[in-house]
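Listing S7. Sequence submitted for prediction.
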Amino acid sequence: MGNLNNRHNFGFQSLLHVNFIFKKKYRVDETAKKMGVHKDTLYRWVRGENPFPIDQLANLVKATGDLDFLEYFCEPCGYSLIPKIKDKGTAKMFSQMARIMQSAIDLEE
């Protein structure tokens, strides 16, 4: 299969197969239950018997906690994931950093 990190060469279904079957990072029965789908349905998606429905992507990411599934679609479009900041202290720090960065690139002199 080659370099597993070069996932854009073999498709999303293969990413599912590698993570669920080859690497055994996730269990189909547990993940399917968390996603609210039957385990046979998830097995069909993982084995490539049925195409993975894009509207299930959020449920897959929530069930596994694996952002690689979401990044698979973001990277080719030129986007990166930035998680929401929920901690007030962290949010304040990032806000201050943004102000500092803005002042450093301020084009008005």
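Caption to Listing S7: primary sequence and predicted structure tokens for the chain studied. DSSP finds six helices and no strands in the chain. The domain at 7-81 is CATH 1.10.260.40 (434 Repressor (Amino-terminal Domain)).
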